[in-house]
C-alpha cells in the first residue's frame, strides 16, 4: 500500500507541475517545442545518445566487474538501451533500471549483487551531477531565485555530508564480514562492502568519475542541441547554469518518465537567468523529446528476441498437399496439364 501510495503521489506531483506550467504559460510553449524538431536534431540526438549510452554502460560494467559479476560491454550497452527506453515509456521512470538490475542478477545467480551494481552505478552518476551543479551554481548563484537559494544550499550541504559519511563508513567497515542473524545487518554489511569495492577502491573510482563526467557532458551537449533547435541564440556560458539546474531537477523522484520537475525547473531557471520562462519550457520539451528519440534503439533491443523467435514461423515454406482424386478428375487433369501453359 505504501509503494502504491508513493507511486500515485509522484504521478500527481508531476502532473501538478505540468498543469501549473500550462496554467501560467499556456500551451504555446509546449506546442512550439513539438513543432520545431527536425531531422538534424533527431540525428544529433541518436548520435549523442549512442555516445552517452556507451559511456554509462561502460561505467556499469566497471562497477559490476569490481563486484565479481560478468558483464561484457556489448551486453551492457544493449541492456542499458533497453532500460532507457523502458524508463521513457513507463510511468515511474526507473522501471527500466530495475529490469536490467534484476535481469543481470538472475543471469549471474546473485540478484542482490546485481541490484547493488546498478544502484551504485546510478548513484555515482548522480553524485557527479550534484558536484558539477554545485560548482556551477557557486560561480553563478543568480540563476537560482533568492527564495530557493537557502533551501538549495542546505540540500546540497546535506547531500555532500551524507556522501562523505557513507564513504567513510564504507572504507572503515566495508572490509568486515558479519554473520549476524539479522537480515538487515547482513544486507547493510554487503552494501558497504560492495560500495567499497565497486566505487571507492583506488582502481575503481577514477574510471567511474571520468565516465560520469563525460556522460554528463553528453547530456549538456544534447541540451544545447535542444536549445538551438528551439531557437535560442544565447551563448553556451549563459545557457550552462540553467541547463545544469534543469538536469539536476531530473533526479528528483517525482517525475513521470522524466517529465514534470524538468519542465518546471527549466521555466524557473531560464526565467531567472533572463532568457524567458516560456523559452525555458520550450527547450525542456524539445530536450525531453530528443531524449526519448535517443532511447529508441532500446525498442529494437526489447523487440529483437521476439522477432528472432517469430522469424522461422514467418519464413517457413508450407507444402500444399494434393487433393484426393475423385471420379471424373482424369479429364480435368489432362486438360490442365496439356502444354503446361501458365494462365494469363
Features:
344 residues; mainly alpha; 14 helices; 0% strand
What do you see in this structure?
- With 344 residues, the chain is mainly α.
- It has 14 helices and no strands.
- Helix 4 (73-89) packs antiparallel against helix 5 (95-108), helix 7 (146-173) packs across helix 8 (183-200) and helix 9 (205-229) packs across helix 10 (236-249).
- The radius of gyration is 27 Å and the shape is globular.
- The model is unreliable at 334-344 (pLDDT under 50).
From N to C, what is the helix and strand string? HHHHHHHHHHHHHH
The percent range for helix content is over 70%
Main sheet characteristics: none
Mean pLDDT: 79
Shape: globular
Question: In total, how many beta strands?
Answer: 0
Give the DSSP E fraction (strand runs of 2 or more residues).
Answer: under 5%
Task: Return Rg in Å.
Answer: 27 Å
Q: Unreliable runs, pLDDT <50, ≥5 residues? A: 334-344
Number of helices: 14
Q: Classify the secondary structure makeup into a structural class.
A: mainly alpha
Query: N- to C-terminal separation?
Result: 70 Å
What secondary-structure arrangement, pairings included, does this model have?
Blueprint: H1 2-25, H2 28-35, H3 39-66, H4 73-89, H5 95-108, H6 111-139, H7 146-173, H8 183-200, H9 205-229, H10 236-249, H11 261-272, H12 277-294, H13 297-315, H14 329-337
Helix pairs in contact: 1-11, 2-12, 3-4, 3-6, 3-8, 3-9, 3-12, 4-5, 4-13, 5-6, 6-8, 6-9, 6-10, 7-8, 9-10, 9-12, 10-11, 11-12
Amino acid at each position: 500500500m505504501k509503494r502504491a501510495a508513493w507511486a500515485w503521489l509522484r504521478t500527481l506531483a508531476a502532473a501538478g507541475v505540468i498543469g501549473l506550467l500550462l496554467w501560467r504559460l499556456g500551451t504555446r510553449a509546449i506546442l512550439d517545442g513539438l513543432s520545431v524538431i527536425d531531422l538534424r536534431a533527431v540525428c544529433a540526438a541518436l548520435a549523442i545518445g549512442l555516445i552517452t549510452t556507451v559511456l554509462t554502460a561502460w561505467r556499469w560494467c566497471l562497477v559490476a566487474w569490481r563486484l565479481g559479476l560478468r558483464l561484457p560491454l556489448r551486453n551492457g550497452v544493449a541492456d542499458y538501451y533497453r532500460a532507457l527506453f523502458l524508463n521513457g515509456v513507463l510511468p515511474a521512470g526507473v522501471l527500466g533500471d530495475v529490469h536490467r538490475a534484476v535481469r543481470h542478477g538472475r543471469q549471474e545467480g546473485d540478484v542482490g549483487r546485481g541490484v547493488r551494481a546498478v544502484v551504485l552505478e546510478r548513484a555515482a552518476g548522480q553524485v557527479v551531477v550534484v558536484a558539477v551543479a554545485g560548482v556551477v551554481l557557486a560561480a553563478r548563484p543568480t540563476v537560482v531565485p533568492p527564495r530557493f537559494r537557502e533551501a538549495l544550499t542546505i540540500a546540497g550541504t546535506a547531500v555532500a555530508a551524507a556522501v562523505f559519511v557513507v564513504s567513510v563508513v564504507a572504507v572503515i567497515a566495508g572490509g568486515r564480514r558479519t554473520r549476524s542473524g539479522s537480515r538487515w545487518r547482513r544486507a547493510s554489511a554487503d552494501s558497504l562492502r560492495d560500495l567499497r569495492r565497486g566505487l571507492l577502491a583506488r582502481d575503481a573510482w577514477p574510471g567511474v568519475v571520468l565516465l560520469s563526467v563525460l556522460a554528463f557532458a553528453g547530456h549538456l551537449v544534447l541540451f544545447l542541441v535542444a536549445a538551438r533547435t528551439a531557437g535560442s541564440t544565447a551563448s553556451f556560458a549563459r545557457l550552462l547554469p540553467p541547463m545544469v539546474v534543469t538536469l539536476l531537477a531530473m533526479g528528483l523522484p517525482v517525475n513521470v518518465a522524466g517529465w514534470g520537475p524538468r519542465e518546471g525547473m527549466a521555466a524557473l531557471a531560464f526565467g531567472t537567468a533572463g532568457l524567458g520562462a516560456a523559452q525555458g519550457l520550450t527547450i525542456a520539451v524539445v530536450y525531453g523529446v530528443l531524449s526519448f528519440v535517443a532511447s529508441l534503439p532500446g525498442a529494437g533491443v526489447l523487440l529483437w528476441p521476439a522477432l528472432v523467435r517469430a522469424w522461422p514461423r514467418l519464413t517457413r515454406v508450407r507444402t500444399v498437399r494434393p487433393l484426393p482424386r475423385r471420379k471424373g478428375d482424369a479429364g480435368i487433369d489432362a486438360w490442365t496439364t496439356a502444354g503446361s501453359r501458365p494462365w494469363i
